[in-house]
Amino acid sequence: MRTSPSHSMTRRAVAVAAACLAVSATAACNRGGDDAGASSSGGEKTVGVSLITKDSTNPFFVAMQKGAKADAGKNGVKLTVASGKQEGDDQGQITAIEDSIARGDKGILITPMSTGVNAAMKKARDAGLFVIALDTPPDPADTVDITFATDNREAGKLDGQWAASTLDGKKAVIALLDLFDDKIVSVDYNRDQGFLEGMGIDVADPKKNGDEAKSGKYTGGKGGDYTIVCNEAGQGAEDGGRSAMEKCLAKNPDINLVYTINEPTAVGANAALKAAGKQALIVSVDGGCAGVSSVKSGVIGATAQQYPLKMATLGMEAIAKIARGGEKPKPSDGLDFFNTGVALVTDKPADGVESIDSGKGNSLCWGN
Predict the structure, then answer these.
(1) Which of 276, 300, 262, 320 is nearest to 50 (CA)?
(2) Per-residue pLDDT at 29
(3) Nearest CA to 53 among 83, 81, 93, 80?
(4) Radius of gyration for the chain, computed over Cα atoms and rounded to the nearest angstrom
(5) Are 46 and 77 in contact (CB under 8 A)?
(6) Alpha-carbon distance 293 to 274, whole Å?
(7) Tens of pLDDT along 68-127?
(8) Read out DSSP for 8-66?
(9) Phi, psi for 175 (deg, rounded to 5)
(10) What order do you get walking across the sheet with 172-178 strand by strand?
């Protein structure tokens, strides 16, 4: 059964409060002013922190940067923001890491591009910086000191459970629109594989996309037959999502279920479907403000909402606390990362899948 918004949000409020207490004794969940270089209220020396995102155009990372800048002064942090040029720009992140080391920063917050930046993150730790991954846990997890992230496997599972229940026993003809086909990124395989697990489709290697059986039975919801038409990389972008969906439709025009790595990809996939005169259930991950609007308009059936502002602000506060002699944050129980939460947003609730509607999702988008 769908949990009522009030009950769901009460549980979330408790979780947020616990998260804040686990990271710091200060008021972690109230964002402060815009001065990234201001001293803390107690007159302590500012702490240098770098925030390195995958790019500076994806709304998810824009929101993360904005939240960190707003909170820097409150925590006595001198914040430097950097990013790759686009998804896949390992060298851009490596350069930003090296600059942070040279600057004498105390810590780095990073959404790691791929395993290609692992050596640079290790170099930063060897130089004495406390390195926190945001959103994308590195592989292996101990490449960084700790990760603050959504449980991406769980996000994918929520999408899959909703899709299986909504299909109501009908055959699933599936397109999987992933992030990359030439890089291994944990957020990529965890969401994809989680979606299949939520559908009730057996996965082979849990850290590899595309090696599951291409047809068989799904057991989620009422269960039914499935066919996986394609695994195509959309690079996490709208134009990539459109071209990836076009390739999938060329293989099988009867696709009725589309998993997408994120909401820009979903919008592109919808454009390709519309141009072909086709309709399909689309599920995604992020729960950004634009993505929630796409749920409300019916473009996206359901999306798993994550909270990038929370990742950035709690991570930045943790580094500031450690630099001043405080305790290091610890992973959430049973996980190898600090879980910042996830909620499924849909206006078409499915039996047995907890969700919130687009109205509530809009009030929470990006972690507001």
Answers:
(1) 320
(2) 31
(3) 83
(4) 20
(5) yes
(6) 18
(7) 999 999 999 999 999 999 888 999 999 999 999 999 999 999 999 999 999 999 999 999
(8) HHHHHHHHHHHHHHHH-SS-TTS---S-TTPPPTT-PPPEEEEEEES-SSSHHHHHHHH
(9) -115, 130
(10) 215-218, 224-233, 172-178, 257-260, 281-286, 302-305, 343-345
CA distances from 209 to 93, 151, 177, 256, 267 (A): 25, 18, 11, 20, 22
**Prediction pTM value:** 0.80
- pLDDT by residue (tens digit) across 176-211? 999 999 888 889 999 999 999 999 999 999 999 999
Domains defined for the chain, CATH in brackets:
5-150+306-329 (3.40.50.2300), 152-305+348-367 (3.40.50.2300)
Measured between alpha carbons, how far is 199 from 354 in angstroms, rounded to an integer?
15
Measured between alpha carbons, how far is residue 62 from residues 58, 149, 204, 314 in Å? Answer: 6, 16, 35, 17
**Is 259 in a helix, a strand, or coil?**
strand
Distance CA 343, CA 355 (A): 6
Q: How far apart are CA 367 and CA 19, in angstroms?
A: 14
CA–CA dist 28, 136 (Å, integer)? 22
CA angle 14, 289, 81 (to 5 degrees): 85
User: Rounded to whole angstroms, how far apart are CA atoms 173 and 231?
Assistant: 12
| Residues in CB range of 2: below 8 A, 6 or more apart | 349, 350, 351, 353, 354, 355
The alpha-helical segments, DSSP class H, found in 78-151 are 90-103, 118-126
C-alpha pair distances (Å), 176 with each of 71, 122, 139, 167, 247: 37, 33, 22, 16, 11
Indicate the helix (H) or strand (E) that contains 110: strand 107-110
Look at the block and give the residue holding tokens 């590195």.
138
- Amino acid making up residue 282: I
Which of 62-66, 265-269, 281-285, 288-292 has the lowest average pLDDT?
62-66
